[in-house]
Amino acid sequence: MTSENDDMGLAMSSISMFNKSSNTSDSFFSSCWDPIVSQSGSLGGSSMASHYHLVMENQGISGTSHVSHYQSDPSFVELVSKLTGFDGGNLSQMVGPFSLPQCNQVANGNERGSTNSLRFLDEHRISKEALVGTSPNGKIRKCAPESGSPLRSCKNGDEEPVMDLSSEGCDGPREQARKKPETEQNTGANSRGKQAVKQDKDSSQSEEAPKENYIHVRARRGQATNSHSLAERVRREKISERMRLLQELVPGCNKITGKAVMLDEIINYVQSLQQQVEFLSMKLATVNPEINLDLDRILSKDILHQRSGSAAVLGLGPGSNSPYGFSPSTFPGTISGIPNKNPQFPPLPQTVLENELLNLFQMGFSGSTMDGFGLNGQLKPEM
Amino acid sequence: MEGYMKEGRRVYPTEPRKIMQARFATKYLNYLLHALTNIGKPELSSTLDCCVNKEIDKMVRYEVDMALALSAEGFAWSHALKHRLRLNVNNNNHAGKSQSYLAHHDDHRTKMPVNHEPATKKLKGNPKRSGTEAAVEEEEEERLTYLRKLIPGGSGEMMVDDEILLSELGSYVTCLELQVNVLRSMLQLT
């Protein structure tokens, strides 16, 4: 209850702001009521006032109580009538100099994070048909930005002045964590919204991905714009991208087209690798008593020079990209860090071993024919 | 080249994946060599003579797997592998049986040839059926589930998503290859 009162307090303060200032607060107030509008799904040509009242009655989510309070507010009716008189130019002017953090505050103040503030403006400007078209999607659009991102949909071509100024200010709430299902819903909603805008134009505008934390997906011409199918398409593309990467890893799979055959090859390859590991480990177990000798021999540089060919494979896997979560973190600490983890290891041979390992790698790098990787040019000395 | 051999200086390639591969191989070799020298110590003289070879095999295999898991931190499969290894060790300690680890591992490995053949037979035996989309998807699903058995932790909750499974597969394959290379080099040096 107290939180609801807080919401009301914030909203009430916003209303009082409205009474004092003129245009800017109008837009502010209208923006705060966007969730109600988008929920109604009935923004036809009739007067807005009646629609707002309808909307408030229909609103059945937690904000009902404070909505009803607003209903009784006389200033609200004034604002509604003012809203009907908005046009595009005024909107952009109003939104532009408007201080967005306030918008965000109220947006975040609402319990449900109902913050499609400027989205309403966008919709209002687009067309009424488009609005009706997008209204059934209002639910999805509503659920998605619960983290409080008011200006997500302002990436419309029509709203450029709005976008530039508002996107800067709203980076705060937009930076909140987004879950994957939200992303998929967002992509669905956004693409639908965009299609509504661009119904007349067939131009494919570039999506402004860098300002967002998730991916905009345009529905292609002639393809279903169902949110599920779009999310499915994104997922399929990601999976096929992974399959391509795997194809590069597994040798001899360049000519294979088809997921099933590719998976077959991967299975075979993994099995063969595992069998090799098992075989090698058994072989290692048989020579294990001589492992001390191995150490001594490793430490002698003659072996290293002789075995430069075999050492070349040390540390050099197949020449391919491996973007699988490898993060080059504290490298210098790695080599020295390992012995410290296990205190039972004798310290003395380790330092020598490290140097010899370094030798091995250098041998490997110089002897490698895979990348033409020379010691001279491309290695970077690390202090 | 001598200049690079100074104490405290390391030479690394500029490509990040080479860095990671080298790092993996270093860790792996470090760990495994030291673990193997510990195995070679006379601590094992208390075990039965008939079981010595199996014990050593088992322990070497354990250390090989553990080296893999520890050298490639940060992957779901490495975490699962570590977990499985520790569970097996606990089982061994509590039950006092030396066979449980091997038995578990054998099950894991014998699954491979047995389950895989029906999949390929299905592909070859029903060319008409494989033309339909549903059948193809079914095959793919079969193969994916089979892959889940191969990769450690594939049936777990971390890899329910296909995307994640495929990326984990990529890292697993890379690390397996590196592991094989390291082991081969170690053996060649003897």
Automatic annotation (TrEMBL), chain B:
Residues annotated as domain IBH1-like N-terminal: 21-88
Chain positions covered by the region annotation Disordered: 117-139
Glycoprotein in keyword set: no
Record key words, sorted: Transcription, Transcription regulation
Keyword Transcription regulation: yes
Superkingdom assignment: Eukaryota
InterPro entries assigned: IBH1-like, IBH1_N
Biological processes annotated in GO: regulation of DNA-templated transcription
Protein name per Swiss-Prot or TrEMBL: IBH1-like N-terminal domain-containing protein
